């Protein structure tokens, strides 16, 4: 589980103030905020701009230029489901369909909250597909029920 605290404007302000003395402090601030909260809330933009005497557009520009900054809270768990060729041959698209139809889980739908399922292309577990990666653990022969259970319960062996 990611386990990040909810965005807190006072904590964000403290983090920003603690780094304001650095040369080129924008990126260290953004990284520190993402480390603390799992993402950079849009509310950070005016705080950083003010602390560094930049325009808000400049801060926005830094966030969007570097693709590793997230601007929305992440789900507590992300299940990565392989949809590359070998796993397709072993039925991963049926898993995707069943997830939507039977469990109301839409793969690759942007969502915050408890869990999300994202497409990846090959996890190196091709013979045992459909494959999934959850909390660093590689799973083989997954079906929709197992993925849905992972999304609900937060344990790879549920
Ligand atoms: S194609 Fe799915 S693990 Fe390789």
TrEMBL record:
- Report the family membership: Belongs to the complex I 24 kDa subunit family.
Please tell me whether the keyword Cell wall biogenesis/degradation is annotated for this protein: no
- Any keyword Transmembrane? no
Spell out the Pfam families in the cross-references: 2Fe-2S_thioredx
Fetch the InterPro entries from UniProt: NADP_DH_HndA-like, NuoE-like, NuoE_N, Thioredoxin-like_sf
Name residues in a coiled coil.
Answer: none
Q: Could you tell me what this protein is called?
A: NAD(P)H-dependent oxidoreductase subunit E
Gene3D superfamilies for this protein: Glutaredoxin, NADH-quinone oxidoreductase subunit E
Per UniProt, which keywords does this protein have? 2Fe-2S, Iron, Iron-sulfur, Metal-binding
